[in-house]
Amino acid sequence: MIATNDIVLHIDHVHKTFAGLHALADVNLDIREGETHAIIGPNGAGKSTLLNVCVGVLPPTQGKVMFHGTELTGLKPYEINQLGVARVFQTPEIFGDLTVLENVMMAMLSHRDGAFRLKLVSRFDEQGEIGQRAIQALRERGLGEHLYHLGGALSRGDKRRLEMVIGLVQKPKLLLLDEPTAGMARADTNATIEILRQIKDSGMTIVIIEHDMHVVFSLADRITVLAGGRVIAQGVPDEIKGNPKVIEAYLGEEQV
């Protein structure tokens, strides 16, 4: 449910070229406050490139990205994160040699201080404020039994859930998810959908890139379809399902 019509993220005529190849070509997109917005399209459509431009990993060749009226173009990824944009990557990025609890405590320290050092983590008392908040966040997302397990020993589904917790404890205003169910078994996918529903119901603004149309149509308020680096359709799920261009470019292969 969309809370307001305020624009959280404004992508304005964004182009991105690599050695003359247009990965993104004149992409325009507005993300509204409180909505879950899915970006779909075939492989090579430019979806991950667009997210990389939004979080400062890649600079746009042309155009700009605005977040709550502040231009993100030219900012470093950590500066964008400090503004309230969190991203969960396609491949889980966690500290495999730290415990699940330590991973979350690290994220909380980074958000609070803007910097962290690995050697400091062991000095944090889990009975203190940071530790207790981290434990609560992990228990709420079904990871309470893994508090003292090494991050690298988790299943793929639990690693994804851990990374979502890491993103959420930073209290973002916008959560960007790059294929959060990639490679998951159906049971893990369904568990992840439930977690995302809880996040959605909290009112957080979410952008999700996803190939699994079951996930997309279970969660999305609106959908943008990319093909060949261009936007070919935007609308609510029922509009996208019935769009001939989308069926030809993508959904016909997905058997939705």
From TrEMBL:
**Entry GO terms, CC:** plasma membrane
Which residues belong to any copy of the ABC transporter domain? Answer: 9-253
Q: One Pfam match, by short name?
A: BCA_ABC_TP_C
Domain of life of the organism encoding this protein:
Bacteria
InterPro entries found in the cross-reference section: AAA+_ATPase, ABC_AA/LPS_Transport, ABC_transporter-like_ATP-bd, BCA_ABC_TP_C, P-loop_NTPase
* Keywords attached to this entry: ATP-binding, Nucleotide-binding, Transport
What this protein is called in its record is: ABC transporter related
